[in-house]
Amino acid sequence: MRRSEIITKDALRVAVLAIVVLSILFFAVVKLGQAARLFSRRYTLYAFVPNASGLREGGQVTVAGQLAGSITRIEFLPVDTDTTRNLRITVQLDVTLQQQVRLDSRVMLRNQGLLGDRFFDITPGTPRFRALHDGDTLQLGATMDYDAMLQRAGAVLTDVAGLTHDLRALTQSVAKGNGTIGKLLTDRQLYDRLNSTLASTSNLLARLQNPNGSVGKFLDDPQLYTQLTDMVTQVDSLMTRLNSGQGTAGKLLRDDSLYSNLVSVTANADSLVGSLRSGNGSASRFISDTTLYNRMVEAVAHLNEILTDIRKNPKRYTKGAIKIF
């Protein structure tokens, strides 16, 4: 009886342990099925793509990034001139998400990380379009080609490598002392000259700060500032007097009598010039008539002849002159 009871207890323990393990496995399967939507009702949709690189049967299908189903089949279509429809992809979606997938929904082939597999992502539709039913076709949206992206990244890396090589060559050239920057970094003589220049500049600044010098007085002595302030005050007073019309300068600026007189004198001068041009009076004849000019020329010519004759025969003109002793 004791042996039989011991076997029964061991068997009971094994049975309990097996039940617990099976319960855990059943619970895990149920949870995993719920997470993967394995036990939900599904409906079938199709999509036509030019390239299914990275996709596989059994791969996940998401709606707005959330797991919604799986890819059940990827098959080639007959050869056609339309290269955008080389493959047909069959997907099954959870029927509870049917209202999210509509005629304006688009398929995006996305990547899981940089080097992960591609998955089938569907954008949610809008209420203006009807929901897709079993057997309908999804429209392919603009999808970035992963290979093209890698090619662009390779070109960028090539450019970066070339830039790094150029920078290395530049730094090596600078380290060797080539060029202006290299001289600045490696030439001891230039450093000494700069140090000497800085010392001279410091000495000059010290001399400028001397309160006994002109610059020092300009910086520290308030007398110049006071004098400048007084001069500005006087100039302001002068401008005030000029604007008020006081004195000769003020009247020149404010009083229009001088302007009126100048206008009158200008008018009279213009009238006089007009009279001279018209040929009336002696002055106008003197300006415009050439007779007097011709007679004066003749008189000067006769006078020159007389003076020439006097130089040659002075006795002719001095004969009978009275001499006074």
Strands side by side in the biggest sheet: 1-4-3-2-6-5-7
Helix proportion range:
55-70%
> First CA to last CA: what distance?
205 Å
Derived structural class: alpha/beta
Q: In what range is the share of β-strand residues?
A: 5-15%
Q: What number of structural domains do the residues give?
A: 4
**Number of helices, counting only DSSP H or I runs of 4 residues or more:** 11
If you had to describe this structure to a student in words, what would you say it looks like?
Strands 1-4-3-2-6-5-7 form a seven-stranded mixed beta barrel. It starts with a helix and ends in a 7-residue tail after the last helix. With 325 residues, it is of the alpha/beta class. The protein folds into four domains: 1-36; 41-149; 177-220; 222-284, no CATH class. The protein is elongated and about 195 Å long. The mean pLDDT is 78. The protein has helices at residues 2-36, 146-175, 179-186, 188-208, 214-220, 222-244, 247-254, 257-278, 281-288, 291-312, 314-318; strands at residues 42-49, 60-63, 66-76, 87-94, 106-111, 118-122, 137-140.
Could you give the topology of this structure?
Layout: H1 2-36, E1 42-49, E2 60-63, E3 66-76, E4 87-94, E5 106-111, E6 118-122, E7 137-140, H2 146-175, H3 179-186, H4 188-208, H5 214-220, H6 222-244, H7 247-254, H8 257-278, H9 281-288, H10 291-312, H11 314-318
Parallel strand pairs: 1-7, 2-6, 5-7
Antiparallel strand pairs: 1-4, 2-3, 3-4, 5-6
Helix pairs in contact: 6-7, 8-9
Q: In a few lines, what is going on in this structure?
A:
The protein is an alpha/beta fold.
